[in-house]
Amino acid sequence: MNPSDVTAAPAAPAAGSAARRGSPMKAVLTAETRLFLREPGSLFWILAFPSVLLVILGFVPAFREAQEDLGGRRVIDLYVPISILLALIMAGLQAMPPVLTAYRERGILRRMFTTPVRPSALLTAQIALHGAAALGSAILVTAVGRLAYGVELPGQPAGYLLALLLAIAAVLTLGATICALSRTTKAATAVGSVAYLVMMFTSGLWLPVRAMPGTLRRIVEATPFGAASQALDQAASGQWPSWVYLGIVALWTAVLGFTASRLFRWQ
């Protein structure tokens, strides 16, 4: 996937002219949605790949068998929330930072100051689009897990939704921080890729968090996606997610959001 190849240049003038006919925010969101939908690579990696991965993992017979050390649950049950977190990571760390950095690198954000549309509207639209794509992928993964492998729906839906929304906020603020720290699109892609690999590990993609050794598990649980993985897993099994895990994700979101807002430059 190479989100940095998005043709961003037409967005600003299109939004600027549309803003004269209606709401600036609506105009920007419409223009950005059209550009986003023209990128089949981003759509595949965010919306389809997590579900495809879940289907592939389900082909392993041992993953579909209940295990005593997992409390009678199956490995495939654990990988539903993990696949959801993968979708979030794809959206927030691989897709969004290169796009925003490209807008700034090409001078589009600076030129928007001369139009009725504020650059902050573009930033808001990108965050909303990638957040919505991640949420849509979460719904798709849940449906695939249920229909293909009989994975139970979250036993604590309210807690699950709360943990999911916090995780989405955390990954988007992390993506915004990467954009704020990266001066070029290449730098944003490189930093995002490193963060992507780290977050994939902490989310439990290669080894579920609850199966990690004691010390490693405690370290991972202090990360935003390690805590989010545990919170989602608890809610999926019918428990209210631990406020400790929810608090860790919320704290990371607040810190990253503050950092991004302080460091972000429009040019």
TrEMBL record:
Record InterPro entries: ABC-2_transporter, ABC2_TM, ABC2_TM_bact-type, ABC_2_transport
GO cellular component terms, A-Z: plasma membrane
Boundaries of every ABC transmembrane type-2 domain copy: 41-267
Secretion signal span: none
Entry's transmembrane regions: 43-63, 78-100, 121-148, 160-181, 188-207, 243-264
GO biological process annotation, one example: response to antibiotic
Cellular compartments annotated: Cell membrane; Membrane
Domain of life: Bacteria
Keywords of this entry: Antibiotic resistance, Cell membrane, Membrane, Transmembrane, Transmembrane helix, Transport
Topological category with respect to the lipid bilayer: Multi-pass membrane protein
Family designation: Belongs to the ABC-2 integral membrane protein family.
PANTHER family listed in its UniProt record: DOXORUBICIN RESISTANCE ABC TRANSPORTER PERMEASE PROTEIN DRRC-RELATED (PTHR43027), TRANSPORT PERMEASE PROTEIN (PTHR43027:SF2)
Name the record gives this protein: Transport permease protein
Originating species: Kitasatospora albolonga
